[in-house]
Amino acid sequence: EAFCELSYREYEFEDPDLEPLQVAQDPSGRLAAGIGATVWDAGLSLCKYLESPNCQDALQGKTWIDLGSGTGIVGLVAAQMGARVVLTDQKIALPLLEVNINSHRDRFPLSPIKLQMDWKEMAAASTQESGLGVIEELSRLGAWPVDGLLVGDCVWFEELVEPLLTSIMLLADGPPGHETQVILSHDHGHNSHKPGLDERIFGTIDLRLDGALRRVPMEDLNPRWRDDTISVWHGTLHT
What we know:
- By secondary structure, the protein is of the alpha/beta class.
- It is built from eight helices and nine strands.
- It has helices at about 40-50, 55-60, 75-80, 95-105, 120-125, 135-140, 160-170, 195-210; strands spanning about 5-10, 20-25, 65, 85-90, 115, 150, 180-185, 215, 230-239.
- Strands 5-4-3-6-7-9-8 form a seven-stranded mixed beta sheet, with helices on both faces. Strands 1-2 form a two-stranded antiparallel ribbon.
- α4 links the parallel β4 (about 85-90) and β5 (about 115).
- α1 runs parallel beside α3 (about 75-80), α5 (about 120-125) crosses α7 and α7 (about 160-170) runs parallel beside α8.
- The longest helix has 12 residues, at about 195-210.
- The termini are far apart.
- The relative contact order is 0.15.
């Protein structure tokens, strides 16, 4: 019954040889309780950046984790560009992710994987001797260490920033010399009614990631999918 409530958003690639995605959304919240259940503009800006020359060599054949996947559109675009992608979100969001993975599965060079991930649980587990089940599961799947992390419009809620950053640091770990790219997008309109909040959030990101992320210049973003209220950030973490 819940599936009758879905709507669809088409994503067209710049490369005409790539078939558009038909991304299921859940505006009623019946599959994902309203959490990340629609395609957001900052996510689309990130998708278009993945198609840009800046990312051409970063995706093909590499392992990327999409954090807070929501509908999965960012990770699905990366998968269609040739990356091996693990789509992650809270348990409540996984049914919608599964719909979108299954409806596109036959077209990907490497089929995406969905995995339950809760940043608060990861942050808590990082302080315990029992280890991290998510890392163990990624290793079992042959998807760790990872080459890149995607974060599409997930940093507007202040209380989740620290758990997210802890999760990023844990997932970016690896053998000495390992490098993990991080690409993040944010819609500053979310917090326009809260003066100073975005400055605090990005100050925390800069501090915790040791200044690794740099804002992508506006001219490097797709002219049809860029806006003064949306920022895209790209950088590399080193072990």
